[in-house]
Amino acid sequence: MNSSLNKQIYEELRAAVERGLATGALTAATQIERQLTVFRERFGPEVLRKLDGEAALQLMHGRQHTESRCLAYWLEFKDDDEFAGKSFGLIGGGSAYMYGLYQRQDDGAWIGGSTRLPKVLSREEAITAARQQRDELVAGSSVLAALDTRDTSDSAYSQLQSAMDAAAPKLAGVGWAHKYWFLLHSDRLDDFHSPRYQRFHLFKLLQMPPDNLGVRDGDAPRFLCAGRFLTIARELGVPVTTLDTILNQRGPFHNYWRIGTTLGDNGESQWPAMRDGNCVAIGWRDYVPNLSGLMGDRKAKDKVRDQLLPLYHSDAKMAGRKAGEILNFAQVMAENDTVLACEGQTVRGVGRIRGPYDYDPEQFFPHKRPVEWLLLDEWEMPQQEGLRTTVMQLGKSGENLLELERRLYAGKQQHGTETASRPRSVAPLLDLDPIAKRVESILRRKGQVILYGPPGTGKTFQARRVARELAARSAYGRRFAGLTEAEKESIDGDRGVVRLCTFHPGCGYEDFVEGLRPQETGAGHMMFEPRDGIFKALCRDASKDGERRQFFLIVDEINRGDVPRIFGELITIIEQDKRDVRITLPVTGTTFPVPKNVFLIGTMNTADRSISLLDAALRRRFGFVELMPDSSVLAGRSVGGLPLGAWLDALNDRLRQHLKRDARNLQIGHAYLMGQQPITSVAELARVLRDDIIPLLEEYCYDDFPTLGEILGSRLVDVEAGRIKNELFEPNREDDLIGAIWFEQLGSRLLAGGPEDGAIGIQSGSGAEDENDSEEAAT
C-alpha cells in the first residue's frame, strides 16, 4: 500500500461497502461493467481512429441533431438506464467552452475561444480542432493501456503523469478528457475528475497527496493520485467507482477558510464573542453597513471598495482586495464549509458554517456567519498561510489541511461526535445529528420546514426531538436531556416554547389564527367573542418574550388540512424577509406580525395518496427534508435469529418491485420496529406484523391478494383463499412465524441455511441468488 490507511477508517469504508451492497444503495460491479462496455463500444479509441472530418466532429461535439450520439453529451449529461453517467463522476458546472469547441444549438455554428472572447469557427477550423482532440484522446488511451495495473505506487503514477502530459499536452489537464479515459480504463484511474476533489478525499482519508499540494490548485496533476484510490478499492474488493461513491457520501466536498479574530495586528481579540456566540465575524463596522441588500449584485465589489477607500487612503488596489475578502465572507463561504478562527498562525477554534450571512450592528464585528464549533483546542498551523488577511480560502498547504483533518477525525473518534467539547466556563454546544443540522439550516433560511416520507419513518418523533433540542440551545445553551425538570417544562410543557397541533379536514382559519367562538354570558344567553388560534397565541407569547428564546409549532399531518384556508394571510408574513411586518386581521381588525423567533415544523405522510400536496405558493415558503426507511438504526439487532435491518430492507425491496405506482413512498419505516429501542422479542414482532404492517400492506394491495402474496410470500398469505395465515401468530408458533418470514423475505438475499435447533443461520451475501436458489435451499 502506498500510504497505510488508518485502520479505523478502513473498517468504516468496509462497513459502508457491505451495507451499500446489502441494501442495493451501491451499484453492482456487473452493472457498472455493463454500462462501461456500452460507452466503450460507442466511443472507444478504435472507433475514434476510424473517423475523420465531419464524422469525427459530429461524433465528438455535434449537438444540433445528434445529442444521443455526441461524446460531449454522454460525458456531461447522459444519465439513464443505458448509461448512468453521474455515477462515474461529474464534470458539469462550467460552460460549453470547456470542450474547446461546441456547436451552437440555434444555428449550428461552431464556436471556440472563451466566454470572454468567443470565436466563430469555420467548419475546417472546427474539424482541425476535433482532429487534434481525437488524436490526443487516442494517444492518451494507448498510454493507459500500456500501464502495468499491478503497480499502483506513487512513482508509477508519477511516470504516468509525465507520459500523459507528453501524449496529450492540451487535454491531460482537462476534466472531460480525464472522464473519457476513466470510462475506458476504470481499472487504472479514479473518477474524481478534478484535482481538488482528489486531494480533498485524500485528506479526509488522512493521507498526504503525493505532491504535497492542497486543494486550491485546479491545475494540479490529474493522474498522480489515482494509484492511492485504486489501492484502497482493491483492498476493499470493489471497483474504484464504488469506492469514490462511498467517499463522496462520507465527506461531501467543501472549502476551508481562515478567519482572523483580531482587529489588525494588535487589536483586542474577538474570539470569546465568536466562541460563545456560535459564529465567526469580521469588522469594518464604521465603513461597510449591512451587506444583505448587495447579495447577487454584480457591482457589489465596486460598491464595497468605494466604501473602504477612506479607510485605505484612496488605495483602490488595497480597498478592492479587502472588498473581495468581505464579499467572500458574506457570499462565497457556503454552508458546511470548514472555518478556522485564527490569531496569527494559532488556530483558536474550528467550526462548520451553519447558515447565511447576518448583520448585528450592536457588535464590534457586525458581519456574522453562524457556526457549529467542532474543535476548541488551540494549535499551531504547520505552515504559514493567510496571516495578512482577515478572510482567506485555505488549501495551498497540504500540511495544514492534513493536520486539520487529523485533529477533526481524532476529536470525532474521542467524543463520538463532530461537535466540540467546550471549556467548563462556557455552556456546551449541542451535538446535532445530520437531520437536526439540516432542519436547523432550513429554519434559519426560511423559518419553516416540512419533514415528509413514508409511514413509520419517525417524522413526528424527529420533529419533536429537533424542536426540543433547538429550543433548549436557544433558551439555556444546553442539551434538552441535560435540563432540569422545570427547564424541560418551560420547553415542552403546556405553555412551553414547543407546541404541537394536528391538521385534519375539519381544521380552519379560526383554529389556527383567530375566529369567533360562542361564549355563555349568563341567564342562558350566548354571544360570539373573538378567540386566538394556536399559531396566533404562540406568536403573541414569542413577541412578549422579546426574542430571548425560539418558539416552535409542530404541525403534524400538515397536508391533511385545507392549508391555504387555514393559513389565510399568513402566506405573506411567514416568509423570512417579511417577519415582523404587521398585517390587519379581517376578523378582529387588529394588526398582527409573525416574530422572527417563531418557527414552523410540519410533517407529511407521502403514503396518503388521497391528500394532494401543499398549495404551490406555500411550498415555495417551506423547506423540505425527506425521511426514508433507515435500516441502519436496526443494525446488529435480531429477533429469534431474524436480522431486523436486513428483513426491513428485503420487505421494502419487494414493495418497490411489486407496487409500481408511487412505490417509493409506500415503503415501511423503521419506526414500526422500534419504541425507544428496537423490539427485542418474537412476540413483539408478531404483534407489529399482525396489527400494524400487514393491515397497511392490505390497504396498499386492496383486494389484490396475488400482489400481497408476492410481497409477504406464500407462507404468510393464502392467495387462493384470499386471507392472511393468522394461525402463524398464535402463541407457541414463534419458530414457524420466524421461519416463514425468513424464507420468504430473506431467502434470496442472505440465506446460509435453514432453521436449526430453533435458530436461523445467516451470513452476508451479495444478493445474487434468485428465487429458485432460495426455494431449493429452503427445501
Describe this structure in words.
By secondary structure, the chain is an alpha+beta fold. The protein has 28 helices and 26 strands. Helix 27 (734-750) crosses helix 28. The two termini are 45 Å apart. The longest helix is centred in the first third of the chain and has 23 residues, at 123-145. Strands 4, 5, 6, 7, 8, 9, 10 and 11 form an eight-stranded mixed sheet that branches. Strands 13-16-19-12-20 form a five-stranded parallel sheet.
Topology:
Layout: H1 7-23, H2 29-43, H3 45-50, H4 53-61, H5 71-76, E1 102-103, E2 110-113, E3 118-121, H6 123-145, H7 154-167, H8 175-184, H9 195-204, H10 226-236, H11 240-250, E4 256-260, H12 271-277, E5 279-282, H13 300-308, H14 316-332, E6 338-343, E7 346-353, E8 358-359, E9 367-375, E10 379-380, E11 391-394, H15 398-415, H16 434-446, E12 448-453, H17 459-476, H18 485-492, E13 498-502, H19 509-512, E14 514-522, E15 525-532, H20 534-544, E16 551-556, H21 563-567, H22 570-573, E17 583-584, E18 591-592, E19 598-605, H23 616-621, E20 623-626, E21 638-639, E22 642-643, H24 644-658, H25 682-700, H26 705-712, E23 717-718, E24 723-724, H27 734-750, E25 751-756, E26 759-762, H28 771-778
